Amino acid sequence: MTQFADKVALVTGAANGIGRSVAMMLAERGARVVVADMAPAGEQTAADIRAAGGQAEFVRCDVSDGASVAAMVKAAVTSFGRLDIAVNNAGIDPEVAPTATWEERTIDSILAVNVKGVFLCLKYEIEEMLRTGGGAIVNMGSAAGLVGVANKPAYTASKHAVVGLTKASALQYASQGIAINAVCPGAVDTQMLADNLGDPGLKDMVAANHPIGRVASANDIAEAVIWLCSAQASYVTGHALAVDGGLVIQ
Ligand SMILES: NC(=O)c1ccc[n+]([C@@H]2O[C@H](COP(=O)([O-])OP(=O)(O)OC[C@H]3O[C@@H](n4cnc5c(N)ncnc54)[C@H](O)[C@@H]3O)[C@@H](O)[C@H]2O)c1
Prior knowledge:
7 strands; globular; glucose 1-dehydrogenase [NAD(P)+] activity; single chain; alpha/beta; 8 helices
């Protein structure tokens, strides 16, 4: 498919899970893709894209570090000449515990990746997109960016912040050709969910909380991201799209 034939895309957190699916799907549909991740396994995503006939480069990046993010965007432009699409997907959710028990350093680490990381990505991606006349950016939120989740106070705060950052930045750049949206998944069948649950037997219980009756696949989420990156969504900006099997309408 050649939907994104002339486009250059960057996906953070693309070594695994949702980010990997988004990167693979963008490449299948013709985009040249920068696979960014702090994990070396990102090289495998890029290699898989190339093996399937696509174009991809792996860039090692820690999104919580400004110099690293600036270098990632620079690498995209050096490799492929421009930046049209960015999916700020990297995120962490390392702790499930009541608010009163949280360690300060865990709060800091979640906010550093999930909030500052998205902020830094926006900063450098927008700078580049303004140079070439526009683009589409999708930030990875969560159902926890739309409603409260007990035992996940820092993650909930971080994903509400992602929605806020999305709206503020969308307003700022709407007239300059940059569309900025967020996707807010419910539970998605990735390593993050497995780590959160601990016991695999709990997955059925989580699935039952979603009106559709199952957790999402990474591809379910990638399809929504792809649409927001496409010309078909060109009149959509500042939106936080729940892709959650009906979780937050209950
Ligand atoms: N899995 C779910 O149930 C779920 C639900 C809602 C939202 N999300 C969000 O979707 C996004 C992707 O989650 P996933 O389930 O695919 O997780 P995952 O753990 O499978 O993948 C996350 C990827 O991000 C990378 N990463 C982590 N910190 C990074 C950093 N500082 N710099 C660069 N890369 C970093 C990891 O190496 C990993 O490859 C996250 O933002 C997450 O909060 C996930």
